[in-house]
Amino acid sequence: MNQNDLSIFNEHESEVRSYVRGFPTVFHEAKGYKLWDLDKKEYIDFFSGAGALNYGHNDDNMKKKLIEYIQEDGITHSLDMASKAKGEFLEKFHEVILKPRDLNYKVMFPGPTGTNTVESALKLARKVTGRTNVISFTNGFHGMTIGALSVTGNAFKRKGAGIPLQNAVTMPFDNYIQNTNQEIEYMERLLDDNGSGIDTPAAIILETVQGEGGLNAARMEWLQAVEKICRERDILLIIDDVQAGVGRTGTFFSFEPAGIKPDIVCLSKSIGGYGSPLALTLIHPDYDKFAPGEHNGTFRGNNMAFVTATEALNYWKDDQLEKSVQEKSQRIQQFLNDMIKKYPQLKGTHRGRGFMQGIASEVDGLADKVAGKCFEHGLIMETAGPDDEVFKLFPPITIDDEGLEKGLAILQKAIEEVVAEEKDLVTS
Amino acid sequence: MNQNDLSIFNEHESEVRSYVRGFPTVFHEAKGYKLWDLDKKEYIDFFSGAGALNYGHNDDNMKKKLIEYIQEDGITHSLDMASKAKGEFLEKFHEVILKPRDLNYKVMFPGPTGTNTVESALKLARKVTGRTNVISFTNGFHGMTIGALSVTGNAFKRKGAGIPLQNAVTMPFDNYIQNTNQEIEYMERLLDDNGSGIDTPAAIILETVQGEGGLNAARMEWLQAVEKICRERDILLIIDDVQAGVGRTGTFFSFEPAGIKPDIVCLSKSIGGYGSPLALTLIHPDYDKFAPGEHNGTFRGNNMAFVTATEALNYWKDDQLEKSVQEKSQRIQQFLNDMIKKYPQLKGTHRGRGFMQGIASEVDGLADKVAGKCFEHGLIMETAGPDDEVFKLFPPITIDDEGLEKGLAILQKAIEEVVAEEKDLVTS
Amino acid sequence: MNQNDLSIFNEHESEVRSYVRGFPTVFHEAKGYKLWDLDKKEYIDFFSGAGALNYGHNDDNMKKKLIEYIQEDGITHSLDMASKAKGEFLEKFHEVILKPRDLNYKVMFPGPTGTNTVESALKLARKVTGRTNVISFTNGFHGMTIGALSVTGNAFKRKGAGIPLQNAVTMPFDNYIQNTNQEIEYMERLLDDNGSGIDTPAAIILETVQGEGGLNAARMEWLQAVEKICRERDILLIIDDVQAGVGRTGTFFSFEPAGIKPDIVCLSKSIGGYGSPLALTLIHPDYDKFAPGEHNGTFRGNNMAFVTATEALNYWKDDQLEKSVQEKSQRIQQFLNDMIKKYPQLKGTHRGRGFMQGIASEVDGLADKVAGKCFEHGLIMETAGPDDEVFKLFPPITIDDEGLEKGLAILQKAIEEVVAEEKDLVTS
Amino acid sequence: MNQNDLSIFNEHESEVRSYVRGFPTVFHEAKGYKLWDLDKKEYIDFFSGAGALNYGHNDDNMKKKLIEYIQEDGITHSLDMASKAKGEFLEKFHEVILKPRDLNYKVMFPGPTGTNTVESALKLARKVTGRTNVISFTNGFHGMTIGALSVTGNAFKRKGAGIPLQNAVTMPFDNYIQNTNQEIEYMERLLDDNGSGIDTPAAIILETVQGEGGLNAARMEWLQAVEKICRERDILLIIDDVQAGVGRTGTFFSFEPAGIKPDIVCLSKSIGGYGSPLALTLIHPDYDKFAPGEHNGTFRGNNMAFVTATEALNYWKDDQLEKSVQEKSQRIQQFLNDMIKKYPQLKGTHRGRGFMQGIASEVDGLADKVAGKCFEHGLIMETAGPDDEVFKLFPPITIDDEGLEKGLAILQKAIEEVVAEEKDLVTS
């Protein structure tokens, strides 16, 4: 296949295909924050595989280790047998990530995707508590398999289940009702009221920044309050850090600034480093109660991902990357606020934190138009939120200033054009 | 990590780890049907990653293509955007697999694991029929996420859910009641009786040979009868070919000899060729009704797996591999029947077909002991069945005669030793 | 209202009304086995309020006691407070029914209907076992509220739920597969197979003779085998004796001839004696574990029903009624077998036992026609079975020979006429 | 049984018995607002069978009609066949209740208890909308069968189910968060947010005054707002008027002052007039879509209850009773407010409206003590609320001034004594 032609996909792939519709070209080469299609057209990547490519495409160090591993016929697939690559990952993850953060977790490999880790977390929480209910939040997104979908807010995704989704109760996420501590008070009231109809949950599951849900960033006080709710009522706290974790918000785990210690942490997406499927479920030893094999899966032992994941951990040996992300996050925030001010026609609100920021526009369909224009001008960016009302900046966290500014410039151009077109629309 | 030492795993990995307990060593190198641990001890692989390594470890042709792809910075992770690697796979899969078999399917990438494809299939069947119930079979195994677990028979795995599993009804698999057509008649009776309490299902899901469930191979007549049941009642037929597919039984799809045409086919495990996570859901165009993005997942676009998957399809350009598998299957069957005859103490029954054969032993714990002895003597083999009563031969389908005979010899030795020990046990 | 006119019902009552369509007249007076409509037309009652009027209409002794009670302003409604009427019932029920049969039960008043007692039984069984699954049988009927409907087989009734019905598994009732002990073996196999997908149930619930389900009478050996299954696996046995109990099959409890001792027994319908709402849940003391008020209901204390229920127990002080029912049952059976022989056009099969007998006709719609003709000629009789294929003789168990013969004569006439008409239909 | 002795109940009745523990005596005679036990001790009834005896005990006019009906052998039990007694009820209910209030409903007889009517309403709403979710409210109480229990808030009752309760979502009832319109805004937000995780419901079910839940009276504006929410989103509005209906709040239906027109209304308890089991489901003709017999039940045709229900409707031929209830309600409210002021030790808050008023006390266990003292002094009164924190005045709505004042005097005495004892407790 050497032609930039989508007919193969139109003919043979299911109608469920989605991103190919928004980015209608055939990609081939990729490096760092750049992608090229078969016409060699260059795109800047402000999408990062929906958070699976935090280190950009095909990082050179990881690439080197990966090729070495393949060349020496390191075992590729090992289920949950012990392998050198896996052992090295486990050790380094402990040394570089857990120990310095004073976190005490056993590592479970639940299958290589986000929904696998979420399902394993929910099952475990229910098993250890003997309760069935789980509390999730408005606009939470946790995956597409029935267990994970039951704690996912999106109505369109939920409908795809074809069955009523059960054993979960939705609570308002931070800032949902717009009244500083009201969501917490409301949740406490419901949990403590013997007449509320809310069965005591096994766990509360949440993302600290809701990616798919529209870049809603919880305040640290809110996270602390949720942890307190859990502690006082023997409820397990599960942080789904699949999208917000691995540095996307400026720290390895997104919850670090809150100082909380979840009972279970779900990691996937960028944990493999190179974009290969890998997921971890981190479990406080007190709750490490699955019997051997009680949850399993064929692709728990993706050794190529272990190799690159181990290499990727070098980024976390010092605080250089963290600092860089935090600084660039401020640049992004400033840029977005400028846009909102400069283009009131956006009816825009700033959303998110770290490298998960964007603008929610009240204008119907506008976010989609902005993303469309960006693509035309060589920038890949997606929308989020229940009505796709947010355009979402997700650059690799390793992006340099030049790449970031280039991307922002394209975005500004796209906004300008869309705003102009909207005006024409209204005038005509 | 250069020492063959399990302490890292014991210390850092969750108690849920399982195979490492049966095969307590640290693997590193692998090639074809062989594995080596860090002590350079060689093992013959009659396990094949539970069916994910049908082509053996690190196949040279695939390895070459994979390294090339990585070296040229081909895009690694592409969600469901179009990529060259994906396009080439789609085209070749159509040309080499579907067209020659007169099968008409759209290809969905539901996420890279078996449970992802099963969940997508169940969701789709419920969506297109508007019904919620699904019929599955005794000793069926379909995955560990809640939707797939609901159609899985194993009590131990089901308990791990922590919630009652719903929207599914178990029927007896072929030969369950030991009376030629009775299971079919029983199923028909229940489906057609307005008072049976069995709600008309959206779909019937089955494996043609139940791998985890104990190597129960359905007769072709039974498969045809199930298809007929579906056709006559507008029920969708889903074949979960995750383990039995991709040549394991001697044809690419395990259902080919029955001449049936399922509405949905689930593929994973060996479809990627090299052991990397990949899964497909094949959907008859009439049922290709998910809206764009209604089911999604981060790792739908695992391009390294597309590259090796495409290369692997070369095995299917002619019938050489098929014939070889079919011939060697007879050798395996003969060997197993010999063992059953020669060692009546096994109280053994032959199970399975193709490269999914084994012996069910009525002696409590015996299958486990045989597998343990095999490991000691350098053969990797697992057990299956609800009580782990079956030892299960799963060599790579590309194994040569020498490898096969070596493995069988070890197995015979292991059986002999176990039988001798059992006798001592009884005598003492 | 003095006119025999249905317009009020057509105008003001919901479309869900049902029996009024089959018996389109306005009833007013009733006595013993007779009913009269507003035109003073007399009907013989072979329906008995679907088993709620086993002692016929307005029994003179009960009537006397009831009027006395009302006249002396005995408390009518007492929730579950203690009342004289209730105390007397409890005492007499113990003395006349439980003690002589060596049955040891605590009495729960779960609300006054059959579905109330079934729901209380299911809830209790789940609570005391900590399990959620319940096994019910093909063509079982247990009530219309969601818990009871989940263990009910009828597809039409199930659809009315509007939600998937859960936490129950259907097994084949005795004689379902027509092979003496196969249903039991099949059930044992599924319960003991760790891979069957059948979660160990809290309870097995069954009717010894399925009334609504088509007069399927279980053999005593089958009942004993089910009890054994329960005992060996710590599963509770619930007998729903709502319709078959209170003498309908010739003994007070329908399960007496089998010598089994259920853990929980559900009684309603005729237990009140006079046709007033009353239900009991009999609970073996070991399982009497609901906390005070954990299940409740407004009409648990229907004292008018206690008064007539107590009086009705006089019928059971000796074995006169039992003997009479058993003798007349033989007469009914002989009559039905004669009909089947005499009118092969019925394609009839005998069904049921005791005062729950009937004929299942293979001719589509024939049972309904017979019931229709009966009504024209002054006999009230209903149909049963998943396709209304059974006409069902349900006379009061107190009916005298004259009444019984009169009814049978009308039935024979109706059969004759229907058979003749069917013939005409075929000929023309 | 002529002795006031509870031993029969202790010996033979299930542990689930409840009110007999709070009112430990054997009642026998009852008239109007008075009850007598077997020792001829008189009690004033401020309990009214939990709302089933709004017209007091054994009303003379109803008694006369009832005895006449029984004496003339009027049919007692008629399933859903037409009977004179039922026809007369239907006609009069239409003339006296529905027509003057401009309400257009078909009447369904769903079985004779509150939980029967609630289950029928939920099933119907799900059937006609094709949706499965139902919204209920904090501290709502709708019944003990699984469907009704799923929309009931009380944790203790819910636990009795033994299974996870599904297909329902709890919303905050009026005044739950104490911020005038916030509950409505919150509900609207959740319903209209495509990411909220709240599936569009078939129906919203509510009590206008929550009896069991603690006498929480919704404001009329809130009821109107809920109706508006339903109308704008094609959601059915179900008012469960089982306890608050039939005059208890001062109008026949409790929702009349709000001017709303529910799609379905559930009635039971006092609708029968004399305390006999009877329930109605009132259905707007547009939703009268159950097929004949799709929901049924043995005791739908309780003719003795029809007779007294018809007679009871005479109370509603003019507005005398309504006015009397409304006036006396003010007296009750004034009395309770006086108590709260006079006895600050109660830490009391006024609750409820009409003849459903009471005091919520913040002092743990105090409400129970007050009810206990009342019983000692000859007043029957129960507590309500998730922690039994409310003592609840439920006199018959026909009570005269003398009876009311007598009861209030006893209550005041009880409060005084409890307050004094509490003081002693604190001092000592």
TrEMBL record, chains A, B, C, D:
Q: Under which main EC class is this enzyme filed?
A: transferase
Q: Name one GO molecular function term.
A: diaminobutyrate-2-oxoglutarate transaminase activity
Q: Which domain of life is it from?
A: Bacteria
Looking up Pfam families in the UniProt record yields: Aminotran_3
InterPro entries given in the database record: Aminotrans_3, Aminotrans_3_PPA_site, Dat, Ectoine_EctB, PyrdxlP-dep_Trfase, PyrdxlP-dep_Trfase_major, PyrdxlP-dep_Trfase_small
As cofactor, the record names: pyridoxal 5'-phosphate
Which key words are in the record?
Answer: Aminotransferase, Pyridoxal phosphate, Transferase
Cite the SUPFAM superfamilies for this sequence. Answer: PLP-dependent transferases
* Classification via PROSITE patterns: AA_TRANSFER_CLASS_3
One GO biological process term is: ectoine biosynthetic process
Which pathway is this protein engaged in? Amine and polyamine biosynthesis; ectoine biosynthesis; L-ectoine from L-aspartate 4-semialdehyde: step 1/3
Q: What is its EC number?
A: 2.6.1.76
NCBIfam families reported in the protein's UniProt record: dat, ectoine_ectB, PRK09264.1
Q: Which PANTHER family has this protein been placed in?
A: DIAMINOBUTYRATE--2-OXOGLUTARATE AMINOTRANSFERASE, DIAMINOBUTYRATE--2-OXOGLUTARATE TRANSAMINASE
Family as reported in the entry's similarity comment: Belongs to the class-III pyridoxal-phosphate-dependent aminotransferase family.
This protein is called what? Diaminobutyrate--2-oxoglutarate transaminase
Species for this entry: Alteribacillus bidgolensis
**The organism's lineage?**
Bacteria, Bacillati, Bacillota, Bacilli, Bacillales
